[in-house]
Amino acid sequence: MLQLSYAMLKPLVIILFALYSPTILGQTNYKGFIGKYPIELVTNIYSDGDARAVYAYQNFDEPIVIDGKLSGDTLTLFEKDKNKTVTATLSFPGFNKKNKTLNGTWTSLQTNKQLSIEIEKEFEIEDGDSIEWQGKEIIQKYSLKNYYFKLVISKAKGDFYPRVTGVKILQKKTDSLIQHVQTDCRLWGLDNIQVGDYNFDGILDFSVFEESYAGPNTSSVYFLYDPTTKKYFDSGFEGVSLEFDQKTKRIFEHNQCCAGRQHTTAKYRVVNNKMVLIEQHCYIWDEKRQDLVERKMKDCQ
After folding, report:
1. Within a domain: residue 2?
2. pLDDT tens per residue, range 273-294
């Protein structure tokens, strides 16, 4: 996993990250009902009509990931099972993201049962230098067995984009606040929170997307679970585009720059919840060989 294929690392790969990608037209949080059941729904709708969303029945707080399309003025979202088979649709004719209320229909594709959807806009995530607000909360698509997550988002005046200033860890079914951790991270949407076993102790932890950099480089903040205190703490793990291999119990880092002409990789083990470096490698593009060639680490610094 650490020794990267030279062919895979050729600079031409970086072109993929320069291609046009649609922008988010708006991230909006709604509350209301499907039939008689209270729900919370957050949507991301992109400029090409692609729609991503998460909703949860408030009596259970189990996030349900849905996606679909805004075609004309009709928003259609698809609910799928673990096998990616569509089991239900949520349809909103006459959709307009500026509307305060949305009405639609939830339809089971297995039984043809239909329930009315009536939801109201709670808030919209807004950008702009002159806008200022604090403490808006949106549910995330990943959760743990007994807990679910909400981002706490704030927008400072003078900053164009809002930031993730905290994460709330909440008990499913009761909504009891288990913990509130402070962060300062870029808002990434429904995918800000990821779940994984980052210290290889057999217990799931969580991470918060922190920032994206040149090319595909990213960073996250990793929170580990302490079985003694039953709380999560900032691990202090640092690195670019970290990957966690559960089989080898190793952490792999891959950092590239200079339009893909330079790559550094590293491998770590975890000792007492700390990342310990095992090895590093530096690869630099060689014009004569037309390939990446391994160099000394100081050449990549």
Report:
1. no
2. 999 999 999 999 988 888 898 8
What is the rounded distance in angstroms from the CA atom of residue 214 to the CA atom of residue 256?
Answer: 8
Query: What residues contact 178, with CB distance under 8 A and at least 6 apart?
Result: 147, 169, 170, 171
Q: Indicate the pLDDT class of residue 259, thresholds 50, 70 and 90.
A: confident
28 and 177 housed in the same domain? no
Residues 215, 21: Cα–Cα separation, whole Å: 14
Rounded distance between C-alpha atoms, residue 266 and residue 239, angstroms: 9
Residue range 36-60, pLDDT digits in tens: 999 999 999 998 999 999 999 999 9
Residues 146/169, Cβ–Cβ less than 8 Å: no
Amino acid at 134: Q
Q: Which of 171, 161, 163 is nearest to 135 (CA)?
A: 163
Domain boundary (106, 125, 144) is at 125
* SS3 at position 204: coil
Residues 183 and 169: their CA atoms lie apart, in Å, by 13
Read off the tokens for 281: 């490698």
Residues 13 and 50 in one domain: no
